[in-house]
Amino acid sequence: MTTNGLNALLLDLDDTLIGNPMNTFIPAYFKALESFVAGTVPPKRFIEELLAATRAMDHSDGAGLTNEEVFAAAFYPALGVPRQELEPLLGRFYREAFPSLKSLITPRPAAPKIVDWAQRRGLQVVIATNPLFPRTAIEQRMAWGGVGVDLFEYDLVTAYENCHATKSNPAYYREILGGLGRQPEECLMVGDNWDWDIASAAQAGISGFWIAAADARPGASVIGAVGQGSLDDFLRAIENGDLAHDVEQPAAGQATR
Question: 133: how many CB neighbours lie within 10 A of its CB?
Fold first, then answer.
């Protein structure tokens, strides 16, 4: 792929546009949640049911309920607390406590330059983060990384409110294509997770640029990426117009593992 045929750029968020190792962020996120709900729900049980509801979202197939609806159907009944009682508390958590996690995020200077480059060329730009979080949690992380919705107008930010699958299912990418009105060959996915960002997108026919060290090797797979390197490497590639274009991708729906 060269940038000449590119009409939509799909950008992962965590450890792509922003530095945010999940093995650090998630424990801190859980700890903040536990403290916030302790007066209402036993913290250990809260996290157990949160994880179970997250797994339920991960099994969504792109049809029917949104991820938020799947989460609610699994979470609140199992917890035994009415949604109308707990949901306002969670809303307060994202307003009052979630911002304390900002210190865990490292902005990447190339990120706003990439978004600006794409938008100046008329490309549609999608923040294609795994839609397991509510929109507010995603928008806050975007703002902390210098790519907030107050700075750029995005064509789509995927979140659990507006998606019907997660990145583990290529239906996630097909839903994005449908929303944008684009064909797979018009799009490029950029992300650090080989399975979610490269292999799953390829099953929907979308090429990918893998944010990974030059010597990193993916797991067993029959696909390749159009490029590999740091976010700075990707920025240089698009500015110079030298993305690889000779990588054979499987047709949409073809197995990758």
Answer: 23
Residues 156, 95, single domain; the answer is: no
CA angle in degrees (0–180, nearest 5) for 107-100-150: 50
199 and 78 in one domain?
A: no
Do 204 and 185 form a contact (C-beta atoms < 8 A)?
no
Q: How distant, in Å, are the alpha carbons of 34, 47, 93 from that of 28?
A: 10, 12, 13
Q: Count how many domains the chain has.
A: 2
Instruction: Give the end of a domain, one of 86, 102, 118.
Output: 102
CA-nearest of 257, 252, 231 to 13 is 231
Quote the tokens at residue 219: 């797991």
- Write out pLDDT tens, residues 23-67: 999 999 999 999 999 988 999 999 999 999 999 999 988 888 999
Residues 163 and 181 in one domain: yes
pLDDT exceeds cutoff 70 at 247: no
CB 241: neighbour CB atoms within 10 A?
A: 9
Q: What is the pLDDT of residues 64-76, one digit of tens each?
A: 899 999 999 999 9
**Domain that residue 135 falls in:** 3-19+106-240
List C-alpha distances in Å: 144 to 18, 105, 108, 114, 132: 8, 7, 10, 16, 19
User: Average model confidence (pLDDT) for the chain?
Assistant: 91
Considering the domain architecture, whether residues 9 and 115 belong to the same structural domain is answered as yes
Amino acid 92 reads: R
Indicate whether 14 and 57 sit together in one domain. Answer: no
User: pLDDT tens across 159-208, in order?
Assistant: 999 999 999 999 999 999 999 999 999 999 999 999 999 999 999 999 99
Q: Which residues pair with 191 in a beta bridge?
A: 210
